[in-house]
Design a protein that fits this description.
About 65% of the residues lie in helices and about 0% in strands. It has a domain of about 140 residues. With about 270 residues, it is an all-alpha fold. Helix 3 crosses helix 6, helix 4 runs antiparallel to helix 7 and helix 5 runs parallel beside helix 7.
């Protein structure tokens, strides 16, 4: 009897739920100690740097503490800025970069594959599409995160401490995060190749059937074969293209989580205006 795969928790990240629901990764086991896992990831120098942030009286000024003074921005204005960039990146993924956004236009590859189809290279255009979106998200979100962090540092006190802690964690975890997110392309390629092989098998069977029927005078092999190819093409490729967009949206959500957390802290510690 096949053992059912564990489902992602409702409070898990959007990207984890996507991977689990699409059978691209197993759900993380419950009861994992986050602190222990983080400790396993840190090397000696990173542990010293993090200790310095958590115990500022025994350390030299952190990188965040050496930030140049910037003009204070109202939390409401900063929130709108974050929401605007998020909406622009989401539109870029689902449609194309909106005019005036400053984002590069990254077009989804043509839905028609060149004949004859080479399984080894068929995914390359989609690999470039996915990687380009990831690079654009990484650059945009890193700048946004630094902007929000600067505003927290401006306020001093607990918000300044949070900004310095976030800067330390970004430095420590950035390389690991980039490596993990880069694996998404390989996971999509596996699904793509598997679906393509099934598609080619069905196409070969349809061609053989059509060729057999071509011996009958009343048959119309060319139009029948073209119709069969177009239909089967839509059946296997279009869902994969949409799935890649949904994965990129979940990727963006993951990248934005630290920034949104900083922004939430800034709003919570700012006086309310009536």
């Amino acid at each position: 009897m096949t053992r059912a795969q564990p489902r992602a928790h409702l409070n898990s990240s959007r990207l984890v739920r996507y991977l689990t629901e699409n059978h691209m990764a197993d759900a993380a086991p419950t009861g994992d100690d986050v602190g222990q896992k983080l400790g396993d990831w840190l090397n000696f120098r990173q542990a010293i740097a993090l200790h310095g942030v958590l115990h500022p009286e025994a350390a030299s000024p952190s990188p965040a503490a050496r930030l140049q003074k910037a003009v204070a921005v109202a939390p409401e204005t900063l929130t709108r800025h974050v929401q605007k960039l998020r909406a622009q990146l989401e539109e870029s993924i689902m449609l194309s970069a909106p005019p005036g956004s400053g984002l590069s236009r990254i077009e989804m590859p043509q839905a028609e594959l060149e004949e004859p189809v080479d399984i080894k290279t068929a995914f390359e255009a989609y690999r470039r599409f996915y990687a380009a979106h990831q690079r654009q998200m990484e650059s945009s979100v890193q700048k946004l995160r630094a902007q929000v962090r600067t505003q927290l540092h401006q306020r001093g006190g607990a918000l300044q401490n949070l900004a310095e802690l976030d800067a330390a964690f970004e430095t420590i975890l950035n390389e690991r995060e980039a490596a993990l997110l880069a694996k998404m392309t390989s996971l999509h390629e596996k699904r793509f190749v598997q679906a393509l092989k099934q598609h080619l098998q069905k196409q070969a069977l349809a061609t053989a059937t059509t060729t057999s029927e071509a011996s009958e005078p009343s048959s119309a092999p060319d139009s029948s074969l073209a119709s069969s190819r177009a239909s089967s093409h839509a059946n296997w490729l279009m869902p994969l293209r949409q799935s890649m967009r949904l994965a990129l949206m979940a990727d963006l959500d993951t990248r934005l989580q630290p920034t949104l957390g900083l922004l939430e802290a800034l709003n919570a510690h700012s006086p309310r205006h009536t």
